C-alpha cells in the first residue's frame, strides 16, 4: 500500500539533495516525516544519500516521483523514480524502517540571546581557523562593539603545554572580531561565552550559504541548546545544537559561573567526544508541488556514546540520539580540510610526491560522493580505521597504472613536444 | 626582548613557508637588525638556509634584544605559520609581534581583512558590485546613493573590516643552543648550472619516482634514488635505473652562469668548474638523490626564483634560489650570479647518496 506519494521538480531534487548532503555530515540515517495539516502521516528511516544519487548524473532531471510503500505483509520501501530529460527513467528502491518521531527540545522563550548575520560572511570567516581545533567560543564585548569567534581545543589545555616540545604542537589559536554593526541584529548578554562544535557549525554554514543569505541563532546559557536557523523559498532549516556547559570547558577561564545542574556532575573524560555538541537538524520543504517532507536526523538505533548515556543530564535526553562520534581529532581535521581549506591548483603542483597520501586525498573528497551504493563505507571514520591496516595500504600503493604528472598544456608550454 | 613588524609581500612569505614546511615541521628563525633567516634541518633529508633581507617581507620592523645585532632566535612550527599567512593574503594590513599569552611565548599575527564577497548575495540585499573588498569603493557608493529613495538601501549592512588574531606558538631559543648550528661548508662546486623550470623538473622527477615505486618489488621500504648529472656545457640529466628499467631525461642549452672572480677563494683558472669546463661536455658531475626528498626540495619552485644548482661531484648538491622582489621593484638583486652577495637567497643543501647532509665545520655563509 502506498502511504505517501510526492513529485519533486528538478529544482526540488537539487534542494533535497543539498539538504541531505548537509544532514549526512551529522548521521548516516535520516528520518523523513511528512505532515498534512499538522497531522503525522508517517515516519521512517532510510539510507538517505542513495535516495538522490540520480542527481549526480549529468543528464538533466525532468522530475522525481517518490512513492512510499508500507503496510502489513509488505516490505517497507521508498521508491524514487527519476525521469531524465533524455527519456531515461531510473528507479531506486530503498528499504526503510518505521520509527516513532523524535524532536530536539528547544524552548524559544528561554533563548533570549540572538544574532543574525550573512551566512556567507560567516562561512568565509571559518576559513581562517586552522586544523586541529574542535570548539568555537562565541562571545560579545559591548565595550568594543564586537562579536568574537574564538576557536580552541581542549586537548592541549589539558596537556598543560609546559614541555618544551609540546608547546610547538599547540594548534593555531584564532580569534576573529566582527563588528556588531555588521550583524543584522545582536542581542546578547555582554561577555557571555557560548561554545559549540566547530565541525557542526561548519557543516551548517556550508548548507546555509547555499540556501539563504542570513543565518539566525538564538540561545540561552552554556549547556543549554542553541538554535541555528535559516530559510528561503519555502525551505526552512533549523538546527538545534547542544552547547558546551561551562564546567565542561572554560569555567576556570571565565568567571561568570551560572547555575547549571547538569554541569555539576564531575566527568573524568573531558575530551571532545564527551560534549560534542549533539545536534538535531530539522528542515522542511514546502514548495509549490505540495510536497512536505521533513528530514530529521534521528538515528535512534545507533548506540548513544557511553559518556552521554552515563552522565546524568535528564533535560538533555533529547540529544542522546547521536551516533558514535567519529574519532574526533583526525576526522575533524580531515573534514575541515575537505570543506574549507581550498588549495589552488598552483599549490598542489608543488606538493611533494607522496604515493601514500594520494588515497587519503581522494577519501577526503567523498563527502558528497553519492554514487557509491554503500555510503557508510565512505565515512572518514571508517576510512581512517581501514587505513591503519598496513596490508591494505600496501595494496593501495601497488595499484597498477600511473596518473599523468603533467598536463599536456604544460608540456607544450615548455616546448618538449611539437604541438 | 621585543619584536614587532608589519608584514609585506605576504604571498612571498607564504610561499617560502610552504616550501620549508614540505621539508620539516619546525623551523629555526633568526631575526636581527638586518636579516631574517629561516633554517630547517630535518633528521634526514635536505637542509634549507633561507636568508632574507628584512624589507623583503617586513616593514616598520622593530627588534630589540640583549644579544649583538638585537638577535632573537625562535623555534616556530611552520604549519600554523602557513595557516596564519593564508589569512593575511589579501588583507589590508597585517602585523606580527612576539608576545606572551598565559605565560607562553606566542608570535601573534593581527590581520585586518574583509571577507571575499560578502556583497553579491542571494536576495539582492546589497547592490551589485558593492562590498567587494575596497573600502574606498564603498564610501563612493554611499555618497552617490545617499539620496536614493529606497529606505532599504539606507539600512544596508556595510561590510566591516574583521580583525583576525592568529597566535602561533613559539619557543625562544637561548643563543647558546643555536651557537653550534652552522650552515654546512661545502667545497667549491664542480658544476653550476641554472635549472630548467622547477615545475617541469619536478613533474618529471615525480614521475620517475613513482615509476620506481611501482616497478620495484619492495617499494615500500626502499626509496628510489634518482641520478642527477650536469656539465659545464649547459646540460642536465635526470636518470632512474632499476632492475628492470633505465630512463633518462636530458636538458640542453641551460646556462652555466659566470662566476664573480672577486668572491672566489681560488683564481678562476684553478676553480673546479673551469677544470670541468675544459674537460668537455662529457665530463659530468654526478649526485644521487632520494626521490621523495628531491620532490620536497623542488617545492622551493613556488618562490618563482631563479635556481642555480651547484654540483660537487659525488659529494653534494646545493640549490640557490634567488627570490624575486615582486613589488619592491628591486629586480636587480636576483640577477647576481653565484658567488655574488646573496641577500634573499634560499639555500638548499643535499648530500650525495645520503639520507642526511654532511655537516662540516665552518662559518655561516649568508653573504658568500
Automatic annotation (TrEMBL), chain A:
Organism field: Chaetomium thermophilum (strain DSM 1495 / CBS 144.50 / IMI 039719)
Family: Belongs to the rad9 family.
Biased composition range(s): Low complexity: 275-284
This protein's UniProt keywords: DNA damage
Region annotation Disordered: where it falls in the sequence: 258-382
Keyword Protein biosynthesis: no
GO cellular component terms attached to this protein's record: checkpoint clamp complex
Name this protein carries in UniProt: DNA repair protein rad9
From TrEMBL, chain B:
Protein known as: Checkpoint protein
Domain of life where this protein originates: Eukaryota
Lineage: Eukaryota, Fungi, Dikarya, Ascomycota, Pezizomycotina
UniProt GO cellular component terms: checkpoint clamp complex; nucleolus; site of double-strand break
Organism: Chaetomium thermophilum (strain DSM 1495 / CBS 144.50 / IMI 039719)
Region described as Disordered: 116-143
Entry's Gene Ontology BP terms: double-strand break repair via homologous recombination; meiotic DNA integrity checkpoint signaling; mitotic DNA replication checkpoint signaling; mitotic intra-S DNA damage checkpoint signaling; nucleotide-excision repair; telomere maintenance
SUPFAM superfamilies, A to Z: DNA clamp
Family, similarity comment: Belongs to the HUS1 family.
Keywords: Nucleus
Xref: Gene3D superfamilies: 3.70.10.10
Principal subcellular localisation of the protein: nucleus
Coiled coil stretches, renumbered: none
